[in-house]
Amino acid sequence: MDNLNQITVDFETSHLIFPTLIAIILAVLGLAIVITRRREIAAAPGYWRSVFARMDKVRFFGTIALTVLYFSLMVPVGDFWPNTGLGFLICSIPYLLLTGLLFLHERSLRKVAPVLVTALVAPVLVWWLFTDLFFLTLP
User: What does each of the 139 residues of the chain score in pLDDT, given as a tens digit?
Assistant: First the structure.
């Protein structure tokens, strides 16, 4: 009882508290959705089959592949220049460019130019904000 005014933080495991808490809350909410919407969920495979048949598979799977590649390469590229955020910057420019090109229906110079400018300016702006203004380290 003499330790009521003292808090001990275990830094080895303290970062796991909120992800665990959020995972438990999401699991409870997911279970509530399954219980209350069980009839709609049981009828869902036919719906998803028709959605999958109508979807643009190149854009969908291309986006997933580019996103996985983006997050997979960010840290290894950033390890060449540690604590500079260049991994984020170098990986974000081609990711934004390729994702933008993937979603363009017409790839004329007039349509590609804004995508190219956005792919160059947006990551540089975010990189500058995080490193110089917020003093946060990016991968």
Answer: 567 778 777 777 777 888 899 999 999 999 999 999 999 888 888 888 898 999 999 999 999 999 999 999 998 998 998 888 899 999 999 999 999 999 999 999 999 999 999 999 999 999 999 988 888 877 8
The DSSP secondary structure of 36-68, one letter per residue, reads HTHHHHHTHHHHHHHHHHHS-HHHHHHHHHHHH
Model pTM score: 0.70
User: Around 54, how many Cα atoms within 13 Å sit in the side-chain half-sphere?
Assistant: 6
Distances, alpha carbon 139 to alpha carbons 62, 115, 118, 120, in Å: 24, 24, 21, 18
Closest CA to 63 of 36, 10, 103, 27: 103
